[in-house]
Amino acid sequence: MPSRRIGREQALQALYSISIGSRDPSDALAEIGAADENAEHRIFVRELVLGTLDFRDRADAIVRPLLEGWAIDRLPEIDRLLLQMGTYELECRSDVPTAVAINEAVELAKRFSTEDSGRFVNGVLNAVARGRESVDAETP
């Protein structure tokens, strides 16, 4: 079975195709999914892509105040997509540990984006996680 790391890479590829190529999500998912991958893996990738797309406006609203001098629409496309996907996992996927969501996004940033993207994505997603933890601590 392919790992979730591979699934996140495939999800990023689909999100990039949707964003840059104005592709339909179902077409982008069909293109990146191999026929021999198991159903659980395909479901994970599909949920990650569709969940990120559904949550992206909320993710942008969460991330925007954390960017300190950057405008979200001026970020490299891969960084923006990783921040959206990472924020979705942090906020909506209780089955994914915080450290895993952040580390996976950082590794993808190092591999597919700019030289400084790994540190940047790490800092922003850690701030998202800290913000979530402080809200959780305040909730009775």
Q: What CATH architecture label applies?
A: Orthogonal Bundle
Give the CATH topology. N-utilizing Substance Protein B Homolog, Chain A
**Gross geometry:** globular
CATH classification, class level: Mainly Alpha
Total count of domains = 1
| Relative strand content | under 5%
Radius of gyration: 15 Å
Q: Give the uncertain stretches in residue-range form.
A: none
What labels describe this entry?
globular, N-utilizing Substance Protein B Homolog, Chain A, 140 residues, single chain, mainly alpha
How would you explain this protein's 3D organization?
- Helix content is 74%, strand content 0%.
- The protein has helices at 4-21, 25-32, 39-63, 77-92, 98-112, 117-138.
- The radius of gyration is 15 Å and the shape is globular.
- The model has no long low-confidence stretch (mean pLDDT 90).
Briefly characterize the structure:
The protein has 140 residues and is mainly α.
List the helices and strands and how they pair.
Elements: H1 4-21, H2 25-32, H3 39-63, H4 77-92, H5 98-112, H6 117-138
Helix pairs in contact: 1-2, 1-3, 1-4, 3-4, 4-5, 4-6, 5-6
